[in-house]
Write a sequence for this structure.
């Protein structure tokens, strides 16, 4: 998630909410992510870890990847519903909107037909896509960017929370994409992520409606609804949908 937030921002990543005119010099230490190119920088800090043990190349290390396009599936699961209903959206999508240094362009999309090509219930040969099927992609309008949108208002509230957190902790913020416990678990922070996620899901539902599908039950967007499945994480669910790992 840290890398994704940084891909939609501009380095240096050590002071995420200070203005460019007041930004400190670029950190040249071996642990700094503020490098121009990972293969020409003397720092050689072009990797990141998800758990302190594994190591992956850091996409945000390249200047050419600043303000990248990121395609997100907010359900976080393969979800194939007979009435084409969606699961709840995970809160990570809210972080990608609230935390970058600018409000990203947000293009809601509706994809349909992948379940016909690779259904979770398919039999042997499971690895072979089914041919002769139809897929469709519908695009909505940009609901983000610099305009007067709900997401810009939510970002303003988020930045106020960040300023309050910095003042309370008597420190100058964490690196871009890294949150304090207060910004992770605080009541206001959680409520902002919930509302941002709800607004994103509503934008996708608008594209779904434009495609010609009827409105779904509002309960489909609630975490509590899906908790009724118990501990079952894959396979056929009680509502007839199929869920699998991405």
């Amino acid at each position: 998630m840290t890398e994704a937030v940084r891909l939609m921002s501009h380095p240096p990543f050590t002071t995420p909410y200070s203005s460019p005119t007041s930004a400190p010099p670029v950190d040249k230490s071996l642990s700094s992510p503020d490098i121009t190119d990972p293969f020409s920088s003397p720092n050689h800090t072009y990797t990141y870890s998800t758990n302190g043990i594994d190591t992956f190349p850091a996409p945000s290390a390249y200047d050419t990847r600043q303000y990248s396009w990121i395609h997100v599936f907010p359900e976080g699961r393969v979800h194939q519903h007979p009435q084409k209903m969606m699961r709840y959206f995970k809160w990570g999508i809210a972080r990608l909107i609230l935390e970058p240094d600018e409000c990203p362009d947000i293009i809601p999309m509706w994809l349909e037909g992948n379940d016909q090509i690779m259904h979770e219930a398919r039999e042997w040969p499971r690895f072979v896509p089914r041919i002769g099927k139809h897929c469709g992609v519908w695009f909505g309008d940009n609901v983000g960017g610099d305009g007067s949108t709900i997401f810009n208002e939510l970002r303003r509230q988020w930045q106020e929370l960040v300023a309050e957190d910095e003042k309370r902790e008597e420190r100058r913020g964490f690196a871009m994409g890294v949150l304090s416990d207060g910004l992770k678990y605080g009541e206001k922070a959680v409520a902002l992520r919930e509302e941002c996620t709800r607004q994103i899901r509503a934008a996708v539902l608008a594209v779904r409606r434009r495609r010609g599908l009827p409105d779904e039950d509002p309960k489909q967007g609630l975490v509590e609804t899906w908790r009724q499945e118990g501990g079952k994480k894959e396979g056929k669910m009680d509502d007839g949908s199929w869920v699998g790992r991405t």
Notes: The longest strand covers residues 109-112. The radius of gyration is 20 Å. Strands lie at 47-48, 56-57, 78-80, 109-112, 136-139, 235-236, 242-244. The first helix runs from residue 2 to 7.
